[in-house]
Amino acid sequence: MVPSKLIRHLTTKHPSVAQKDKAYFLRLKDQSKKQVNLMSSPFKSSDKAQKARYVIANMLFKAKKPHSLAETLILLVCKEVVKIMISQEAVKEFEKIPASAETISSCINDISTTLN
């Protein structure tokens, strides 16, 4: 936008911060970027977890089984097998795999749109 319009907007719509210096606005910008990073990082899953989710979705689709089977049976069996064969620490990696019926359904939709 044109600087004159920005200044007019600032003085008419936000008079409480119109007299603040440039450092104030830069600090606000940095804080908002940090807040976005903090909010998105817990919800991101690793590339391996994403790949595993798509593999599970593809197998369920090919077997024509319900999407809820991934959450209720497949991951539970995988966790138990890994706990017995490897260790309890390795089970934590399986907990990172998003396998709810909704995520499996979205994976199947992604796969079908990619193939078409």
UniProtKB/TrEMBL annotation:
**What's the source species for this entry?**
Eumeta variegata
Protein name in UniProt: SCAN domain-containing protein 3
Recorded superkingdom: Eukaryota
